[in-house]
Amino acid sequence: MSDDRLERILDAAYACFARHGVRRTTMDDIAAAAGMSRPAVYQYVRNKDDAFRRLAQRLFDGAAAQAAEALAGGGTLTERLTRALDAKLELTLRLWRESPHAAELLGANARVSADLDAAFTTRMRDLLSAAVSGAMAAGEVPGDRLTAQELAELALALTRGLEADLSDPSAPRRRLRAGVALLVAGAAHESEERMT
Questions:
Q1: How would you label 48-72 residue by residue, b for 16+ Cβ within 10 Å and e otherwise?
Q2: Domain 1-45: what homologous superfamily?
């Protein structure tokens, strides 16, 4: 099977889901948007839920790759964590920018691909934890108050909270930068206080 055709189907599925929502999108819609027959589409995806799951996996894989790249890049721990978490935040922001059905799509994600979302969250936590561990080993951030995993989980919780309130679309990125800076500074401050 051609990966190009599957990508075309997933691109078409995204466009249809964003335009019509999950409930109103049909396999005929996806096939038409992909420029393929419905039987040809069924050679690549079993049904609409399968298309949704494959699309979600592709989006999660892309965000995780961006996060890994951000964490491997230069800058302070705060800058690297912010860039990595922005890759996660962008998944939700993109839906809200591109679809009037964003709430339905996010709800469908929880229904159809909750396991994929959980695996993505674990992957993000592991990436963030590794970056924090490296910063602790390098002395950039003390490690006697919080573990790397705890700091990573707090950063993810912050991001989830920002994803829950998108009433001001310009605010989440600004708040993410400030929140991550506070988390990292707070971890360093707690350590300093314990030493005095």
A1: beebbbbbbebbbeebbebbbebbe
A2: Homeodomain-like (1.10.10.60)
